[in-house]
């Protein structure tokens, strides 16, 4: 276990959570927890000003984290051991499928891989981390630089994926924040320049809905409580993530793994207009990374109380 010495400002601690190496990172504005051994999944993100949790996690409980480490992985493992949280997906964004000689499970494979980390800068005012992993099915190497600064709830990522192989490969790439926690209610709305204002339904009234938008004109979105004025904002490189899915499950669908209900939404930036690497290849609707080439992007997210830091609410 690594434990920082500071008791204020930016600080972090490395812990083992249900058998999974993890990081707890905080400053005066926010606190978050990242599962390093399970897809670098952010399973908690709290705005300290209002003590609001923005991340939805599996209502069956997070003991599924440890179960996934000891159970045999099969085509149902994503559902059996689904944590929720905020994670990244590459190269298959969608259901299980087969592409050439490779079999992909749901939303694989970065969401299941362990990530290494290194502390680049560690001061009371600012912390910078480097995270990296290598895919198993593709010869892809991913590196992320994450920055947090004291006094701000904003988390900034600069990311690069490199093809270590010799041949070009088609891939999907997406961000999947599951927004819920103590934050989500029917007072909330989703606001983006490509969808306008989308109301969040009452819990227990609708199974789920999904719509994919072309977001080339603006890679920003926020989910805000119209009463308390708290919210979650996300900004991304629309030149990379050219589309965005808005997925809503308002608690009516509560079968496996959602026994007890799943009141959750996701604003899901993706580099393709369809789900599933097999469908994306058939539709010629995914990026290609040549042998030895790299693609880079940036994205950031922030909790807020008042005005959204990225979006004024005007539809383009």
Compose a concise summary of this entry.
The chain contains three helices and 23 strands. It has helices spanning 64-70, 77-80, 277-282, and strands at residues 11-17, 20-26, 30-35, 41-47, 52-53, 86-89, 97-99, 102-104, 116-122, 126-134, 140-149, 155-163, 169-171, 174-177, 188-192, 196-199, 209-214, 220-225, 230-236, 243-250, 263-270, 287-289, 294-305. It is globular, with a radius of gyration of 19 Å.
Describe this structure in words.
The chain has 316 residues and is mainly β. It has a single domain (11-305), classed as Distorted Sandwich (Beta-galactosidase, Chain A, domain 5), CATH 2.70.98. It contains three helices and 23 strands. The strands form six sheets. Strands 9-10-11-12-23-19-18-15-16 form a nine-stranded antiparallel β-sheet, with no helix packed on it. Strands 1-2-3-4-5 form a five-stranded antiparallel β-sheet. The radius of gyration is 19 Å and the shape is globular. The termini are far apart.
Strand order in space, largest sheet: 9-10-11-12-23-19-18-15-16
Mean pLDDT: 89
> What general form does the structure show?
globular
Share of helical residues: under 10%
Q: Could you list some keywords that capture this structure?
A:
316 residues; mainly beta; Beta-galactosidase, Chain A, domain 5; nine-stranded antiparallel sheet; globular
What topology emerges from the helices and strands here?
Layout: E1 11-17, E2 20-26, E3 30-35, E4 41-47, E5 52-53, H1 64-70, H2 77-80, E6 86-89, E7 97-99, E8 102-104, E9 116-122, E10 126-134, E11 140-149, E12 155-163, E13 169-171, E14 174-177, E15 188-192, E16 196-199, E17 209-214, E18 220-225, E19 230-236, E20 243-250, E21 263-270, H3 277-282, E22 287-289, E23 294-305
Antiparallel strand pairs: 1-2, 2-3, 3-4, 4-5, 6-14, 7-8, 9-10, 10-11, 11-12, 12-23, 13-22, 15-16, 15-18, 17-20, 18-19, 19-23, 20-21
């Amino acid at each position: 276990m690594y434990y920082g010495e500071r008791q204020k400002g930016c600080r972090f601690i490395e812990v083992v959570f249900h058998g999974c190496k993890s990081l707890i990172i905080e400053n005066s504005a926010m606190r978050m927890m990242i599962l390093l051994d399970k897809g670098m999944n952010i399973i908690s993100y709290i705005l300290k000003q209002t003590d609001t949790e923005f991340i939805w996690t599996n209502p069956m409980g997070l003991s599924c984290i440890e179960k996934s480490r000891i159970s045999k992985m099969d085509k149902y493992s994503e559902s059996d051991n689904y944590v929720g949280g905020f994670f990244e997906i590459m190269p298959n964004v969608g259901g299980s499928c087969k592409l050439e000689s490779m079999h992909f499970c749901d939303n694989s494979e970065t969401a299941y891989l362990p990530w290494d980390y290194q502390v680049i800068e560690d001061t009371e005012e600012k912390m910078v981390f480097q995270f990296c992993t290598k895919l198993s099915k593709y010869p892809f190497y991913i590196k992320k630089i994450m920055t947090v600064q004291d006094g701000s709830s904003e988390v900034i990522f600069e990311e690069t994926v490199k093809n270590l192989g010799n041949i070009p490969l088609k891939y999907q790439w997406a961000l999947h924040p599951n927004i819920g926690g103590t934050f989500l209610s029917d007072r909330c709305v989703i606001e983006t320049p490509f969808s306008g204002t989308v109301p969040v339904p009452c819990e227990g009234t609708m199974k789920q809905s999904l719509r994919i938008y072309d977001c080339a004109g603006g890679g920003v979105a926020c989910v805000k409580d119209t009463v308390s004025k708290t919210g979650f904002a996300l900004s991304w490189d629309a030149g990379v993530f050219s589309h965005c899915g808005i997925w809503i499950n308002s608690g009516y669908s509560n079968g496996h793994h959602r026994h007890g209900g799943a009141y959750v939404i996701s604003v899901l930036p993706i580099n393709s207009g369809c789900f599933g690497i097999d469908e994306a290849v058939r539709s010629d609707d995914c990026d290609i990374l040549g042998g030895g080439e790299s693609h880079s992007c940036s994205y950031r997210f922030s909790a807020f109380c008042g005005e959204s830091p990225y979006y004024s609410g005007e539809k383009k």
